[in-house]
Design a protein that fits this description.
One of its GO terms (molecular function) is ATP binding. By secondary structure, the chain is of the alpha/beta class. The protein contains 23 helices and 12 strands.
């Protein structure tokens, strides 16, 4: 019995889900199945090759929605590769090669269009599964593989023997039924790898077409070597590329005949196990071709992204810690987003302000551009200067009811991870929204002040934190520069300008907002009286 690894069970489930939900994805409104898109990235995480953004930060900055906005890839291979690049901080290498090709494609639109057309040959959802061929161990040949090779010839032998004796008609029927059973016995393996192997053949052809354009001379030697190594399997892999080539009855009949021949003679299971056994030593070649296509597709995607947005900048990287400044930063997903500017001068940032005034959105703006600066050398601002930083956040926290953990306990665990990261290595940007709001006021302020002081005292860390507790602003002035967002109340109407302002919030409008929204006078008067008493006591 062949052991079927869990990773391939997950892959089959993802493929079934994709087949059920697959939609036309020829434009920016395409359907996104992130279980499949993130496949390459998840394996890269497990390989511990790169420094990546954690799942908490991915959720906090709405990364999946951001990815949909950023994605202009033309192939499924490029889409998987681009997803990984956007979350891999270790790609904060020199962007010289990237910018060279972006400049080239922007100036040579004809070559760009030709390459896009070639890349689109890998845009079927089956192309996602090329990763199966180089990211994990394959299933092995069944124990009785040699018997399968013997059984595949029996139907042909018995058919020829029917001219000698009618008894062979019976044996022919038995051999066909037996092979039919074995074919479907191995169908799950065929189904799992059929798409991968067939798309590998397309990948080889796509690489060949792009290399033949003569643009990538530096990569050509390595690519041709990998392509040549894999082409030894090309004749066998062609079996998995047999498709219907028309809708007429003749084509339908020919396709069915080909399918029956593959079933009766066990062609698919024999070839799939043989091809996989040979591919085990060629994983690096598959990966080489895959990542080349991913790189090229990513360059074109970044170019089209830059051409589509209201404005962007190429960031400037500094080695000095606590370097972070930007001019007219904005959130890419918010139409007509109000831009803001900031320059950090050796301190972290504490934001005060009322709900809906823009604090959390501003923090997400900073997080997104800090991430993209280090992964694709592109920021949604007119200017952006930074030092390389790991990104950790505690913005969107909720109860974990299944594990019986309260909101506050989830906050404690999330911030504990930040402290652990701080101890492990420097160069972090910490993003916190309403720290410890899951507990009472006095302890919240006390614990918040202690944690924020601890995180900000390191020269290599920058903290962005929002709070309603103006008391924290007074306690943290030595380590934090104070800024605020506020609402505007005029003629009993509430509006927001979403502009970042220097200093701590000086006004309190919560009770006034209740009054504007026609709360009973008894409640308003009681609230004002209580507030007055609390202010006197403090």
């Amino acid at each position: 019995m062949i052991k079927f690894p869990k990773i391939y069970i997950d892959s089959i489930k993802a493929k079934l889900s994709s087949n059920r939900n697959n939609k036309n994805d020829s434009d920016k409104q395409k359907f996104y199945n992130f279980d499949i898109i993130s496949y390459y990235h998840r394996f890269k995480i497990n390989s511990a090759e790169d420094i990546t953004v954690d799942d908490k930060t991915v959720a906090d900055i709405d990364f999946y929605e951001v990815f949909k906005f950023l994605d202009y890839t033309k192939s499924k291979v490029g889409q998987q590769f681009f997803f990984n690049r956007l979350l891999t901080l270790d790609s904060r290498k020199d962007f010289v090669e990237q910018e060279k090709w972006i400049t080239y494609f922007s100036q040579n639109k004809k070559d760009k269009i030709i390459i896009e057309r070639i890349l689109s040959k890998l845009d079927k959802h089956e192309s996602y599964y090329i990763t199966n061929l180089f990211l994990d161990e394959y299933i092995g040949k069944p124990k009785h593989y040699d018997i399968l090779k013997f059984l595949c010839f029996l139907p042909a032998v018995f058919f020829l023997m029917t001219f000698i004796s009618k008894i062979f008609y019976f044996l022919l029927g038995i051999s066909i039924v037996l092979n039919l059973i074995l074919h479907y016995r191995f169908k799950k393996y065929i189904y799992l790898y059929k798409d991968s192997v067939s798309q590998l053949l397309i990948l080889i052809n796509v690489v060949n077409e792009i290399v033949n354009l003569g643009l990538f001379s530096n990569e050509a030697t390595s690519l041709l070597k990998s392509k040549k190594s894999l082409e030894t399997l090309k004749k066998k892999m062609i079996v998995f590329r047999i498709e219907k080539i028309g809708d007429s009855d003749i084509f339908e009949i020919l396709f069915l005949i080909a399918e029956y021949i593959k079933i009766i003679f066990l062609i698919e299971p024999l070839i799939i196990f043989d091809v996989l056994s040979q591919l085990k030593s060629k994983k690096d070649d598959v990966r080489n071709l895959y990542e080349f296509i991913g790189e090229i597709d990513s360059y074109i995607s970044i170019l089209e992204l830059r051409e589509s947005v209201r404005y962007y900048c190429i960031p400037e990287s500094k080695e000095k810690f606590k370097t972070l400044s930007f001019v007219d930063i904005y959130h890419p997903l918010i139409e007509d987003c109000v831009p803001n500017s900031l320059e950090i001068n050796g301190k972290s940032i504490l934001l005060t302000g009322s709900n809906m005034a823009g604090k959390t959105t501003f923090i997400r703006c900073v997080a997104i551009s800090t991430l993209l600066a280090q992964t694709i050398n592109t920021c949604f601002a007119r200017e952006f200067k930074y030092c390389p930083m790991n990104i950790l956040s505690a913005i969107r926290i909720s109860d974990d009811l299944l594990n019986e953990r309260s909101y506050y306990f989830e906050e404690v665990l999330t911030i504990k991870n930040m402290i652990a990261q701080n101890l492990e290595k420097g160069g972090n940007i910490f993003l916190l929204d309403e720290i410890f709001k899951g507990t009472n006021t006095l302890e919240r302020i006390s614990a918040g002040k202690a944690v924020l002081s601890y995180l900000a005292k390191e020269d290599s860390n920058v903290v962005f934190v929002s709070t309603h507790d103006v008391e924290l602003a007074d306690l943290l002035r030595d380590l934090y520069d104070l800024y605020h967002f506020t609402e505007i109340i005029q003629n009993d109407q509430i509006s927001f300008d979403y502009k970042l302002k220097k200093g701590s919030l000086a006004t309190r409008n919560a009770i006034r907002i209740l009054e504007i929204n026609d709360y009973p006078k008894e409640i308003i008067n009681d609230a004002k009286e209580t507030f007055s008493c609390l202010c006197q006591d403090s």
